[in-house]
């Protein structure tokens, strides 16, 4: 068992450490009457290896919170939805037992467990980004003696994840029929209009650990699956291939195959494709006794992916989903380099990285539809055990609060600058290793308010001076300043981890302490004093290092 107190004892949050340096003055300016384009809500995608956690107590609780972010427009992607097994969750494992065979090889379909998972999503305002995979045991061509369920656990080499589910099917016709029957069942159970809103994609990272066959075999697997989906629902939204990274030559070949290649399932030219997907990850390290994030690695891969998916003219305008976009690559792997996860390093990184992904998409003219955070929860694990997750034992972490701030941003972006925001090219090339990145995004909400996000980020998880923000907003309607509120995520706001540390890091908080942790995780709006000054309406507030704040000005 991982003991969180042992792992995290030396990781006192920088925002709670008294920094001797004076606050850094930062000027943020917003032109509320100058729209500069749309800000798509790309943050509304989440995912996890372990599909069965969704139906467990803390999984259900967290899905409620995700659904609240944007009810009916939040999507969840999970591995292992077609795996054979009894539905018992484990690290990087899950199963539904949808497909078995009789002794004479006839298919037996059982949708009980997978229905329960999808029912749980939909009841909480979340829809499936439906990953078609992995291979049922009765259908797998794994060599004799290959175990079906992997034996991986935290600390083991990643190679142990690969087992009998990672191989092609014995019969592609049976594979297609399984996908057809599953899709047909979903249409019957949930209705055509509902299932038309889902995303359908085949497998996960077929250019990496997750596929044990040549790439042409994956293209065949993909074609047969898409044919099965579209036979049951011709209007289904299908895409992929959710490669590890930008995909390199694998992605080049995939793009060529779905546009000008011969479809393995139909014999026609090309494969129906409604969206494209790839993955991008950062690379934190442990340096001089602290975590150093790798935001530059993350953003470089995002940019490579954007260049790749727009390289084929016939596909360049398609919606794009970064099907996994995270600070590093293994949610279930704790360790010193991953010790950023419980506190405000993760939340400030999320704000700073999403801001740059929006910028890169605009630069590359990418139709960015989603940026999926591979971060959910790990059921019945020690408190703050060091996994990449949104909540611990049902209590929200600071990073979830940043998604709650994103949810308050509007669809229309407004002109905004911060004199301490690092240029995009600097962050992509070098990360944030010198001066801190104190940046902003401003939007107009659907009801006419002005919502302004401000973050204070640095790659190094060490103490530093706060920022003294002077926010000036021009172009507001009315003669008097609007009223305003501020929402905060930092060392003392929206931060259950800091509260748990202050309790002495109890291994088993009782009911009273649990309630206190839930209260500590809750953001509360505070009024902001506004004055009419030169250039517009002025607000001033402090933003600690690793802090994120949202200022909302009501319309007049």
Automatic annotation (TrEMBL):
Residues 1-21 form the signal peptide. It holds the Pfam family Glyco_hydro_39. InterPro entries: GH, GH39_as, GH39_cat, Glyco_hydro_39, Glycosyl_Hydrolase_39. Transmembrane segments: none annotated. Keywords: Glycosidase, Hydrolase, Signal. Residues 27-522 form the Glycosyl hydrolases family 39 N-terminal catalytic domain. Belongs to the glycosyl hydrolase 39 family. This is Beta-xylosidase. It comes from Sphingomonas aurea.
């Amino acid at each position: 068992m991982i003991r969180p107190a042992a792992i995290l004892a030396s990781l006192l949050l920088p925002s709670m450490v008294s920094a001797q340096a004076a606050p850094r003055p930062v000027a943020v300016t917003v032109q509320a009457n100058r729209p500069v384009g749309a800000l798509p809500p790309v943050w509304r995608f989440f995912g996890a290896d372990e599909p069965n956690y969704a139906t467990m107590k803390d999984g259900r609780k967290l899905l409620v919170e995700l659904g609240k972010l944007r009810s009916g427009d939040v999507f969840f992607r999970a591995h292992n939805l077609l795996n054979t097994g009894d539905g018992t969750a484990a690290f990087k494992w899950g199963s539904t037992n949808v497909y078995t065979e009789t002794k004479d090889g006839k298919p037996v379909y059982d949708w009980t467990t997978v229905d329960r998972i999808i029912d749980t999503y939909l009841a909480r305002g979340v829809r499936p980004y439906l990953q078609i995979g992995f291979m049922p045991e009765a259908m797998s061509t794994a060599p004799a003696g290959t175990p079906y369920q992997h034996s991986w656990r935290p600390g083991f080499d990643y190679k142990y994840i690969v087992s009998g589910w990672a191989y092609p099917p014995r019969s592609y016709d049976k594979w297609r029929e399984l996908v057809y029957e599953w899709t047909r069942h979903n249409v019957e159970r949930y209705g055509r209009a509902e299932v038309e809103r889902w995303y359908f994609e085949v497998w996960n990272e077929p250019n990496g650990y997750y596929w044990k066959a040549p790439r042409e075999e994956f293209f065949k697997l993909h074609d047969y699956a898409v044919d099965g989906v579209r036979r049951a629902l011709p209007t289904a939204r299908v895409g992929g291939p959710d490669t590890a990274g930008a995909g390199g030559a694998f992605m080049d070949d995939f793009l060529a195959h779905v546009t000008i290649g011969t479809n393995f399932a139909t014999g026609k030219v090309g494969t129906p494709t409604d969206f494209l997907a790839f993955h991008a990850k950062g690379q934190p390290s442990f340096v001089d006794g602290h975590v150093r994030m790798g935001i530059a690695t993350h953003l470089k891969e995002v940019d490579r992916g954007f260049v790749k998916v727009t390289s084929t003219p016939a596909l360049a305008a398609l919606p794009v989903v970064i099907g996994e976009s995270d600070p590093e690559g293994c949610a279930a792997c704790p360790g010193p380099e991953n010790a950023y996860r419980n506190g405000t390093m993760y939340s400030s990184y999320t704000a700073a990285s999403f801001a740059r992904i929006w910028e890169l998409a605009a630069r590359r003219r990418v139709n960015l539809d989603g940026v999926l955070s591979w971060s959910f929860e790990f059921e019945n694990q020690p408190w703050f055990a060091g996994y990449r997750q949104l909540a611990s034992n049902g209590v929200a972490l600071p990073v979830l609060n940043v998604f709650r701030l994103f949810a308050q941003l509007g669809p229309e972006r407004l002109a905004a600058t911060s004199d301490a925001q690092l240029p995009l090219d600097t962050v992509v090339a070098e990360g944030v290793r010198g001066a801190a990145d104190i940046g902003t995004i401003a939007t107009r909400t659907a009801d006419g308010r002005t919502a302004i996000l401000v973050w204070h980020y640095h790659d190094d998880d060490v103490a530093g001076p706060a920022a003294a923000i002077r926010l000036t907003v021009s172009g507001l309607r009315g003669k008097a300043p609007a009223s305003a509120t501020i929402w905060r995520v930092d060392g003392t706001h929206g931060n259950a981890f800091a509260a748990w540390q202050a309790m002495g890091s109890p291994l088993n908080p009782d009911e009273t302490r649990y309630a206190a942790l839930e209260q500590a995780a809750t953001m509360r709006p505070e009024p902001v004093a506004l004055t009419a000054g030169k250039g517009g309406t002025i607000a001033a507030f402090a933003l600690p290092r690793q802090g994120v704040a949202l200022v909302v000005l009501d319309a007049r």
